[in-house]
């Protein structure tokens, strides 16, 4: 077993096959103009910074034959899986299901809802379609992890304080050993990212560990 130099202390890696890279919601809807993030009034260009790092991690996992899990925040075209509380939350701009420049906002199968081309999943990788912020909510993620014997999850993606943090908390409560890759996650609000990193690893790693991509990559070599 090797370890990753992490905070608040080193993270022990299990034997290969039990660790997975989780890439949360790297979708056009959050990273490109005309999608959901843009409709909520955010500067989506801020999220582009992590694309090369996530790509590097993805390529390393692929090369080593380690499992990769992609998530996509989306809803059915009839919005039957979108609670009114989520649908009516935004006060202005395009809402979930509205027609936007990249198709209907946050609707499965629309161009804007897809994962950005640089990180497109390949055959054999797990893709979780999720209607909530957390990837365990109304999905089969937990049974997939159990079936594959995955116990350790390394998190990347967007946004740090919403879908990434929610999923990491859900995973922690289910007994998974979670690590957030700091330069592989981003927020529309730099101060929220910073606060999330600090709160996850506070109190002896109450939710998990954090480390940079280089430390992760070095330990996988
Ligand atoms: C949000 C996400 N922020 N992927 N989704 O609505 O973080």
The outline comes out as: globular
Number of strands: 10
Number of separate helices: 8
Strand order of the largest sheet: 7-4-3-8-9-10
Low-confidence stretches: none
- Average pLDDT rating: 96
Characterize the main sheet: 6 strands, parallel
**How much beta, percentage-wise?**
15-25%
- How far is the first residue's CA from the last residue's CA? 12 Å
| Quaternary assembly | single chain
Task: Give the distinct bound molecules.
Answer: dicarbonimidic diamide
Helix content: 25-40%
Please provide the ordered H/E string of secondary-structure elements.
EEEHHHEHEEEHEHEHEH
Rg, nearest Å: 17 Å
EC number: 3.-.-.-
Domain Isochorismatase-like: 20-207
Protein name: Isochorismatase family cysteine hydrolase
InterPro entries: Isochorismatase-like_dom, Isochorismatase-like_hydrls, Isochorismatase-like_sf
């Amino acid at each position: 077993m090797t370890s990753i130099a992490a905070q608040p202390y080193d993270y022990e890696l299990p034997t290969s096959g039990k660790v997975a890279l989780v890439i949360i919601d790297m979708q056009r809807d959050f990273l490109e103009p005309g999608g959901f993030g843009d409709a909520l009034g955010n500067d989506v260009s801020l999220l582009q910074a992590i694309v090369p790092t996530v790509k590097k991690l993805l390529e390393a996992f692929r090369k080593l034959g380690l499992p990769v899990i992609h998530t996509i925040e989306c809803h059915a075209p009839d919005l039957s899986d979108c609670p009114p509380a989520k649908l009516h939350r935004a006060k202005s701009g395009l809402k979930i299901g509205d027609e936007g420049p990249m198709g209907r906002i946050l609707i499965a199968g629309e161009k804007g809802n897809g994962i950005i081309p640089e990180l497109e999943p390949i055959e054999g990788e797990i893709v979780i379609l999720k209607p909530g912020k957390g990837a365990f909510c109304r999905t089969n993620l937990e049974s997939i992890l159990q079936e594959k014997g995955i116990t350790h999850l390394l998190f990347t993606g967007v946004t740090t304080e919403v879908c990434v943090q929610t999923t990491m908390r859900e995973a922690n409560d289910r007994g998974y050993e979670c690590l957030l890759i700091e330069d592989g996650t981003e927020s529309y609000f730099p101060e929220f990212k910073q606060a999330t990193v600090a709160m996850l690893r506070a109190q002896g790693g109450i939710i998990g560990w954090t480390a940079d991509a280089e430390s992760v990559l070095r330990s996988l070599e």
